[in-house]
Write a structure and sequence with these properties.
This protein has helices at residues 2-10, 74-91, 113-122, 138-158, 176-186, and strands at residues 34-41, 52-58, 64-69, 101-105, 126-130. With 192 residues, it is α/β, with parallel strands linked by helices. A five-stranded mixed sheet has the order 3-2-1-4-5, sandwiched between helices. β2 (52-58) and β3 (64-69) form a beta hairpin. It is globular.
Amino acid sequence: YRKQLLPQLAADAPRLNKAKASVPMPEKQAPLVLLQCDVINLQALKDGKKTRVLNIIDRFTKYTVQEALERETQDECAQVIVDFVDTVRDLTVDGEWPWETVLLCDNGASFGKSFKEQIESYEPKITIRHSEAYVPLSLIEGSNRQWRAVTRRYLGAMGLPENRWYGWAHPRGRGFTLRAINALLNSKKDAS
């Protein structure tokens, strides 16, 4: 065994590839500096009028926010972001958006010119950037997979059918199931 191990220990270690780790610069290591958003299509699992979920994730804290959509229009997606901005403003001392933010979106039809104009005119400190074509936004795509997995487990544990992810007819109010899933998703270890 030692004869086999010695050449492995004596061999030169492979050179580190700088592209493997994506660590933001220190000035970018703060909440709400870099956000990503994407739409999860649940057309086959329609819950009431809701057919999709807009998922927003903060790159630094990994905190996510989801909101159900009916049609995935640019106006509907922009309204979700505007509501998110208003919530953050309500939580700050001065009622203002805290600092410059970049919101990364894919090149989908729901994040087009009208979406960009609505968000950037409503909150000038937010800049909308689109990803390169055919280059996935890995953080949000991973968050989408986690959302689907948590949703599947939650619905199974609660004995609900798979098309009740929103909670359209929930006794505690519309959207209760989606809020519960969001709370579970944000209670994972790597969320702040």
